[in-house]
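Milestone 3.1: sequence recovery, worked example.
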């Protein structure tokens, strides 16, 4: 039977289990996707721990994972834009870490054939979040922009998107990631005590905008540096939003298949790099979340649900088993 990551009580990674579930069936306007890769995100850990229970209460047994990439396995009636075997990118809250997911067709994006599933899968979550943050602070070609945790999943993409707009980008990170940031044409500055002084030294002409992906005082530093509140965006510090009136735009403010397609196009053209720090098999989902909760990873951690050497054969099998004839258009 198909597998799905589930948890039946709030807690740490140890509450996660891989359950056997029925294969879902797509309804009208829906697509069944065989998932190849599903990323692991820090916010998902907060949901599993019950941190956001008042806002997003769990319905036990709860699923996990938001973003994914895989193949179209079946079509509901009325779906004309996809075919069985198509490679797609999607976003499905609390359900993505499963062998099969059902998604509304209108929320899926075709994956370019020349980018990997590992690279594509994070685009609908951290990619769109980075896109939203860069748009929120209005990055332009003459700006100097700071991105906190610039080697992380959101930070590394936000830094690159700001560079694509012509901005000078300063990225805060640990010393081990300085070389990585330079490879992205980002100026590295070490995080930690004394950050404000180091940022002043790195940007003697001043800082125009600040994208905070980590919290822990970064918005305070931006305010101390004289950045206008409307040019500060944080995805990690709700208290700073309330205190200073800074922006807090993220994935839910910008998601659309069109944005995902644009990000995928940038990756395919070699203009955007999605760093993958480690790939875990689905069976090691607990270890994957222990890793991501350290909050010191470079780029993304992802789960592989289909081994790379099995993917070509699986795609061929899906196409061979597809019903003959065109889908029933409503």
């Amino acid at each position: 039977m198909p597998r799905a990551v589930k948890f039946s009580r709030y807690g740490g990674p140890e509450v996660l289990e891989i359950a056997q579930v029925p294969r879902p069936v797509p309804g009208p306007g829906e697509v069944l996707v065989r998932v190849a890769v599903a990323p692991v995100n820090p916010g998902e850990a907060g949901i599993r721990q019950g941190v956001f229970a008042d806002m997003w209460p769990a319905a036990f047994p709860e699923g996990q994972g938001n973003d994914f990439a895989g193949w179209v396995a079946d079509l509901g009636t009325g779906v004309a834009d996809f075919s069985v075997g198509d490679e797609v990118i999607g976003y499905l809250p609390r359900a993505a870490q499963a062998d099969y997911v059902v998604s509304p067709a209108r929320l899926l994006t075709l994956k370019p054939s020349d980018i990997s599933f590992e690279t594509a899968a994070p685009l609908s979550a951290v990619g769109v979040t980075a896109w939203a943050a860069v748009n929120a602070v209005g990055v332009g070609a003459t700006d100097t922009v700071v991105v906190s945790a610039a080697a992380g999943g959101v930070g590394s993409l936000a830094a690159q998107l700001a560079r694509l707009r012509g901005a000078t980008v300063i990225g805060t990170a640990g010393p081990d990631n300085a070389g990585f940031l330079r490879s992205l044409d980002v100026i590295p500055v070490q995080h930690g005590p004394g950050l404000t002084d180091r940022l002043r030294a790195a940007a003697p002409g001043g800082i125009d905008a600040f994208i905070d992906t980590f919290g822990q005082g970064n918005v305070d530093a931006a305010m101390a540096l004289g950045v206008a509140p409307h040019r500060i965006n944080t995805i990690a510090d709700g208290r700073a939003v309330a205190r200073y009136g800074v922006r807090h735009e993220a994935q839910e403010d910008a998601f659309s298949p069109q944005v995902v397609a644009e990000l995928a196009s940038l990756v395919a053209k070699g203009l955007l790099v999605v760093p993958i720090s480690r790939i875990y098999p689905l069976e090691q989902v607990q270890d994957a979340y222990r890793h991501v909760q350290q909050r010191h990873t470079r780029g993304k951690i992802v789960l592989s649900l289909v081994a790379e050497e099995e993917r070509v054969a699986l795609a061929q099998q899906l196409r061979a088993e597809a019903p003959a004839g065109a889908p029933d258009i409503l």
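Residues 47 and 290 are 15 Å apart (CA to CA). The longest strand covers residues 30-40.
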